[in-house]
Specification:
This protein is an alpha/beta fold and 339 residues long. It is 30% helix and 21% strand. Helix 1 crosses helix 11, helix 5 packs parallel to helix 11 and helix 6 packs parallel to helix 9. The protein is globular, with a radius of gyration of 19 Å.
Length: 339
């Protein structure tokens, strides 16, 4: 049994972390922070978490593992000190996902603690499990990048450079802060909107991971077009990825390649038919589905997940399990909610 704490429990990712950790068999959720609600009982702010009996603190005390669910920049300002006191940190912000400092600063501005970029491990277990085991600092991936990368990873080395990712997200991905055109019901209900067409900060994250796989086989970097859309549902990521294969594969060969790549993975599986976001609600599952046309070269690959679970808090718990040597599925066994 270890003690854990959540820095900034008041955001959607922090709330979901508290829910998942409260039922973890090897964990005691000891402390939570949230400056805007400091001093208030957690159960008053979030009644569904009343049984935890916690009070929201302003600063995190002594715990074995800390989860940081702060916005970018804010996370990188507190993590160096946390690492000195706590020793193991799982960060849900974007602050340590991009390994190149110049790339980070192009999208997010000056980095508060760039000395940790080289040490941080990108927390996508399907690609980096062994490095995660030894990590002090795990950079939990973004929700769009998790779905998109897992949809394309098995064929990353076979893709022609031009790749398109068309992705949709539920509005919880925008956070709890009120933003008129993002999460105001009257603005988003019965409407779908593309955004980030001038460039989206998750594009370099997806490219980083897929290009890492391509480098192993000597392939040139991808020219990745990434277009996200806001869709009026609470949870879910649906990424439809388009590309061409350098070598033709039959549908059977393609599926076998995906199944071999994800063999033994506890949460990523190859669906038998195009998946829907509803099939992942509340679970740490990622469903992928690849398809080629009659030529065997035109690829469409789909990735589906719950943006608050496998896309954020659930993957963070999965990473903690790996870091701490727990069974990887501990606390994450719940099946998806349906309907």
């Amino acid at each position: 049994m270890i003690t854990v704490g959540i820095v900034n429990v008041t955001g959607y990712a922090g709330i979901e972390l508290a829910r998942l950790l409260s039922r973890h068999p090897r964990v005691r959720l000891a402390e939570v922070t949230g400056r805007s609600a400091a001093g208030q009982p957690l159960g008053e702010v979030f009644p569904h978490l009343e049984d935890l009996g916690l009070t929201i603190q302003e600063e995190l005390g002594e715990v074995d593992v800390a989860f940081t669910a702060l916005p970018h920049h804010a996370a990188a300002e507190v993590i160096p000190e946390l690492l000195r006191r706590v020793g193991k940190v799982i960060d849900i912000s974007a602050d340590y996902r991009l390994r190149d400092q110049a790339t980070y600063e192009r999208w997010y501005g000056p980095h508060p603690s760039p000395e940790l970029l080289e040490e941080a491990v990108y927390g996508l277990p399907e690609l980096h499990r062994e490095r995660i085991r030894e990590a002090r600092l795990v950079a939990n991936p973004g929700c769009y990048p998790t779905a998109s990368t897992l949809a394309l990873a098995p064929v990353a080395d076979l893709l022609e450079p031009e790749v398109i990712v068309d992705a949709k997200s539920g509005i919880s991905g925008a956070g709890r802060a009120q933003k008129l055109e993002v999460n105001h019901f009257c603005e988003v209900n019965e409407s779908v909107k593309a955004y980030g067409l001038e460039g989206h900060r998750h594009q370099p994250e997806i490219a980083q991971e897929l290009n890492g796989l391509r480098q192993c086989s000597g392939q040139p970097p991808l020219n990745l077009t990434f277009v996200p859309h806001l869709i009026p549902m609470t949870r879910g990521i649906h990424a439809t990825c388009y590309g061409r294969l350098r070598e033709p594969l039959s549908q059977q060969e393609l599926r076998q390649r995906y199944e071999a790549f994800y063999a033994g993975e506890p949460f990523t599986r190859v669906a038998k038919q195009p998946p829907a976001t509803k099939q992942t609600w509340g679970s740490n599952d990622c469903l992928v589905y690849p398809r080629v046309d009659e030529s065997g070269t035109r690829l469409v690959a789909i990735g589906c997940l719950d943006n608050l679970v496998k896309g954020a808090a659930g993957q963070a718990v999965q990473n903690m399990n790996i870091v701490c040597g727990f069974p990887e599925t501990a606390g994450l066994e719940a099946a998806p909610l349906y309907p």
